[in-house]
Amino acid sequence: MKKLLLTVAFSLFGVLSFAQIEGKWKTIDDETKQAKSIVEIYKKGDQYYGKVSQLLIKPANPNCVDCKDDRKGKPILGMEIIRGLKKDGDEFTGGTITDPKTGKTYKCTITKSGDKLNVRGYVGISLMGRTQTWQKVN
């Protein structure tokens, strides 16, 4: 009986922890391979959002001067860069991600692989985009 309860408990833990993206993640630039910031991903209702909680490299301008929406001129630190993702099987899709350096907003898909997130930003179809790998912050 004890073995059965332990098996059920571990199985439940595995299901609950699978593909969870909530928490703090170190962003790694896909071109320079440098860590740039820490993004905290959190859930509001049935959607996921992410905000910059720490800057690891000081940007040329601390504000998003090229943003086109409500983030225009706002500080990058604390900025919500991921908006409206929804869990769809093993992926998180349907939302957007904004690059505060350029002010551009892209469609976004996130998949989790162990302690890493594959964050893909794209315009139009997913083939026309870039992927960054973010690392879990303990």
From TrEMBL:
Keyword presence, Signal: yes
Stretch forming the signal peptide: 1-19
InterPro entries given in the database record: DUF2147
Tree of life domain: Bacteria
Keywords: Signal
Annotated ranges, domain DUF2147: 23-136
Family annotation (Gene3D superfamilies): 2.40.128.520
Pfam families from the UniProt entry: DUF2147 (PF09917)
PANTHER family, alphabetized: BLL5882 PROTEIN (PTHR36919:SF3), BLR1215 PROTEIN (PTHR36919)
Protein's name according to its UniProt entry: DUF2147 domain-containing protein
